[in-house]
Amino acid sequence: MTTTPATPALPGATGGPAPLPRRVVAQARFETVAMLRNGEQLLLLVVLPLMALVALTYTPLLDGVLPAGASRVEIAVPGVLALCVLSNAFSGQGIQTGFDRRYGVLRFLSTTPLGRSGLIAGKLLAILAVLAVQYVLVAGLGAALGWRPGPGALLLSVPVLLLGAAAFTGLGLLLAGTVRAEATLAVTNLVWVLLAAVGGTLFPSTTLPGAASWLVDVLPSGALGSALRETFLTGGPSPAPLVVLAVWALASWAAALRWFRWS
Amino acid sequence: MPAQSPTTPSTASSTASASALSIERLVKEFPARRRSRPSPGPGATRADVVHAVNGLSLEARRGEVTALLGPNGAGKTTTLECAQGLQRPTSGTVRLLGQDPWRASPALRARVGVMLQDGGLPQAVRPLELLRHVASLYGSPRNMDELVERLGINGFDRTVVRRLSGGQRQRVALAAALAGRPEVVFLDEPTAGMDPQSRNIVVDLVQQLRREGTSIILTTHLLDDAQRLADQVYIVDHGRVMAQGSVAELVAPGEDAPAVLALTLAPEHLDAGRWPWEAPEFAGIQVARDERTVTLTGPITPPLLEAVTRWFTATGAMPESLSLQPRTLEDVFLDISGREIR
């Protein structure tokens, strides 16, 4: 974004834009508060993932895929973190952006000093802020349920989560910018349910029969789920899911840049 | 036709500092299948393309109120969207404060305030929260408290935008457009959906902004707004400027410009017979009657007035009222844009 000085302002006229970082942070704060205060969004972002964590820890659903010596919570937490990314970057911001577009909010804000690039930057920062809140809550509940990750895995999980967030943000914006807001709402919620149940987030793809398992491995949900499980259970993700996520991120952002409509 | 495109704003580039907005031969096409804009009818030339704006030129001078007046689908909003950098012109040039709005820098955007026709407001926040956020995007924003009070927004500041009435939302959108103390303000149908009290508040506010030196560019299909507010009026239809000028210029009676003579008579005189309408002075005059009123529309001349008063003398009919009215902006507008409803 350029901040080239315009023609000199008239006496007593406008004081110019706020500095770029302040504009973006202001937009991020505005979006984060809006997300976390909306009841339905809060359900999707925080309540359902935490319920999933409790359910997977207290039921034998994951017992079939537990690695030797691992506890249920150890395999549940990475999956729940992957679900958080899906809730936040794809469903949450997709729905918010879809309705912002429908109500002309994108158009209005792009006429302010925030501009289109500042608006997108604010949304990305809001996704990171919400993700931080989600991580703290999931890790906190996980710790209460006996989760004891190593500091190296915690650190390594951050870039993995960011890569997953990049892929799902691109997909969410692509949807929000191309179809009607109601369709975005319906599709993101449906996709959320499907990917949570059989998309390789909460349950590893190995729980699925052969061909389906292969399909789930190349979905961003399956790739993120397995990359996070490997990060926490085997000390680091293998290249395959990272490559899958990077391809989804590049493709979805390229498509969003090409087809996103602001009105 | 009064003052029809007397000067094209060809000097715009050399006098950029005197002009808040300068548009030359703007064309904006949309794919016809999208149906996102009302069809401008005869403006469309190719089957697959709709010309929402079709060769429109205008110049909004600094410190003035410029009104785009036209029926629905005339191209007013698309013109504003090109001026605000929300649409990229198909052809033609647009200069906002001397710069290209499509590539507007944050510095340029900080000098321009926009109120969109549909408001453009997030639905799930309260008005004051939203206004504080918008203000925070500017270096030295307006103190919003006074504006909020003046627009009566504090009366509903605990209600989220989604639950506000149309007129309330309009007031919030107006406040948002003014948050950065802009030099140029775009108001797309600013009084749409407002009750008369709110309309007066908005009209007063626009007049005050103008006194403070703000350039205001507004669209309206309310002739009253244009008449009360505008220094310059552009009557727009079919994506073009059909007439332009000050309100006084537009309604000035030309050689053959019609005016209106209205008479109110007691009913017995209305039925008195021997009306003089067949006299040669009444050629080209439209006569409309209802129970007590006779309205003559057309070129009202001294001989015609004499013929009317001669008839009063001959019949002993004394009118209860008699008034000669110049054309209103409404007459001009309807003459140009036609009287059929779209």
TrEMBL record, chain A:
The keyword Membrane belongs to this UniProt entry's keyword annotation: yes
Transmembrane segments: 42-61, 73-92, 124-147, 153-176, 183-203, 240-260
Lipid bilayer topology: Multi-pass membrane protein
One GO CC annotation: ATP-binding cassette (ABC) transporter complex
Subcellular compartments: Cell membrane; Membrane
One Gene Ontology MF term: ABC-type transporter activity
GO biological process: response to antibiotic
Sorted UniProt keywords: Antibiotic resistance, Cell membrane, Membrane, Transmembrane, Transmembrane helix, Transport
PROSITE patterns, per database record: ABC_TM2
The ABC transmembrane type-2 domain, residue ranges: 40-263
Top-level taxon in the UniProt lineage: Bacteria
Family label: Belongs to the ABC-2 integral membrane protein family.
Protein name (Swiss-Prot/TrEMBL): Transport permease protein
Originating species: Kocuria dechangensis
From TrEMBL, chain B:
GO cellular component: plasma membrane
Transmembrane portions of the chain: none
Segments forming domain ABC transporter: 21-263
Entry-linked PROSITE patterns: ABC_TRANSPORTER_1, ABC_TRANSPORTER_2
SUPFAM superfamilies according to UniProt: P-loop containing nucleoside triphosphate hydrolases
InterPro entries reported for this sequence: AAA+_ATPase, ABC_transporter-like_ATP-bd, ABC_transporter-like_CS, ABC_transporter_ATP-binding, P-loop_NTPase
Places the protein is found: Cell membrane
Membrane topology (UniProt): Peripheral membrane protein
GO molecular function, one term: ATP hydrolysis activity
One BP term from GO: response to antibiotic
Keywords associated with the record: Antibiotic resistance, ATP-binding, Nucleotide-binding, Transport
PANTHER family: ABC TRANSPORTER ATP-BINDING PROTEIN
Protein name: ABC transporter ATP-binding protein
Species in which this protein is naturally found: Kocuria dechangensis
Source taxonomy: Bacteria, Bacillati, Actinomycetota, Actinomycetes, Micrococcales
